[in-house]
Amino acid sequence: MQAFYIRNFNIIIIIIINLISMGEVDQAFIQSIEHRPNLDTIEIEGIPLIDLSLSHTTDINVLVSKIGTACKNWGFFQVINHGVPLELLEKIKVAAKAFFDQTMEEKRKVKRDEVNPMGYYESEHTKNVRDWKEVFDFLIKDPSFLPASPELEDDEMRTLSNQWPENPPQFREVCQEYAREVEKLGYKLLELISLSLGLPSNRFNGYFEDQLSRMRLNHYPPCPCPELALGVGRHKDAGALTIVAQDDVGGLQVKRKSDGVWAPVKPTSNALVINVGDIVQVWSNEAYESVEHRVVVNSERERFSIPIFIFPSHYVMVKPLEELVNEGNPPKYKPYNFGKFNVARNRSNYKKLEVQNIQISDFKII
Ligand code: OGA
Ligand code: NI
């Protein structure tokens, strides 16, 4: 009986704390009850850690099979000995902090708008709830070309280009140098993924000639109500592959395929986090799935993360690869134009929309 009272008392206290913090923060950040994070620390099996170094004693087939298993079971893994110089990994984290530490006035000099989606932004929404973060985005290929509208019959194109801040000094150089190195890793991983699907290593190469890949610096400030808001709400990445550098704070969680539990991605020194995106899901006809993930925040420490999203050229028609489909395994998706998809998807990042934004499930053959 006493235990019953203590438990109810605890629940009442939590409700009161929630109500107090709800009054403090903008309602736009508050997740609906079913999407609020459980902040208890849990020790559970996490995503695989894969060593990419190939000595003459390790067989490439062993590595390919580890990658294939991780893609199949998790959609996520971490890599070490990835070839991205560790000094550069350190430098990009320092550059990210130096950029976000500046005044709002300074950051807003490179603010993105309805016309130019590159630059600084502090009010992105995921699934119509505002994320507790600020970001800086730039294109790997500058300029890049994208359809002007999501309408299929409209063939007008738009040129996207980067906005670079004057400060901090060296920011641009460090960002670009880091992006070049991670891009190389991205293509190496796509080759390994291709091999793991039983395809030639260069099978995906042709899709990236006019790549729309972009890099993002994420800053998650400490949050007064980490039990109500999220750094990034649950989502799947729309590209082919994402490569994320994170600091030692932690917060990224992956929805474990085996049981749907949110599994934390443990910060691992010198490692990069890799996840397959929607395009690999479609190309592989669902042999590999793009897995839902989110970022929880905390009330004490700010967090930085740096993803690179590897996107194909705008004119690529994304569809299950012919070699992987047959009578017994018919294509699960209708082809879609990546540029049009991307334009339609990004509309909802700016403001709340009445309808859910475009998803690959819209192209699913039932
Ligand atoms: C993203 C994302 C993860 C992180 O920006 O799409 O999932 O750790 N970020 O910041
Ligand atoms: Ni993501």
From TrEMBL:
Name of the molecule in the record: Protein DMR6-LIKE OXYGENASE 1
Residue ranges constituting the Fe2OG dioxygenase domain according to the UniProt record: 211-312
Family of the protein in this entry: Belongs to the iron/ascorbate-dependent oxidoreductase family.
UniProt source species: Gossypium hirsutum
Gene3D superfamilies the UniProt entry points to: B-lactam Antibiotic, Isopenicillin N Synthase, Chain (2.60.120.330)
Upper taxonomic lineage: Eukaryota, Viridiplantae, Streptophyta, Embryophyta, Tracheophyta
Signal peptide range in chain numbering: 1-27
Swiss-Prot/TrEMBL keywords: Iron, Metal-binding, Oxidoreductase, Signal
GO molecular function ontology, one term from the record: dioxygenase activity
Database matches in Pfam families: 2OG-FeII_Oxy, DIOX_N
